[in-house]
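Helix-turn-helix domain-containing protein: structure, please.
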Amino acid sequence: MQSSRLCKVTEDIVRTGALPEHAVRTALLGLLAEGGTLTSTEAAARLGYSSGLCSFHLRQLARYGLIEEAPATDGRARPWRLPQDRPAEDDDGFGELARGLEDESYQHWLARRAEAPADWQRDEAFSAVVHLTPEELTAVADAVRQLLARYRDRDADPAARPAGSRPVAAVTRLFPLLDR
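Here you go.
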């Protein structure tokens, strides 16, 4: 399955109700898109859920063809990955999937914001148009990545997470505005 079709298949499955939208499944797809392969134990450590819950949702995603088993590196681990029969150079399709997941997560947040604890009911969404050279665009992207990298150890090590912390989506899109 080509990755550009993967987003369409995901939308169709969710729209028809065959596989309802679920925060854990969305997070798992995001981790797979980011890291290549993932076991339920690794997912549990990064997301803060039980490995059983992650395993269940990974199997559900596989049942609907959104992910597949990856070759095991040892006898016990059961790694998963996005389907591999897509061209490696199809970065645009991967980007489409990632953007779709980001947009879906943000719409879910907007619809259910009132259910969050009072001190979490705001978000820090913003945008700006700035004039950059291609080199400056790359430098800004690198600076954002470096800033966020300070917090990445918390994904793998729940003990490193401060009390009261929660998973927060950090989405940055830097692109040139084209003439209409």
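Notes: The two ends are 33 Å apart (CA to CA).
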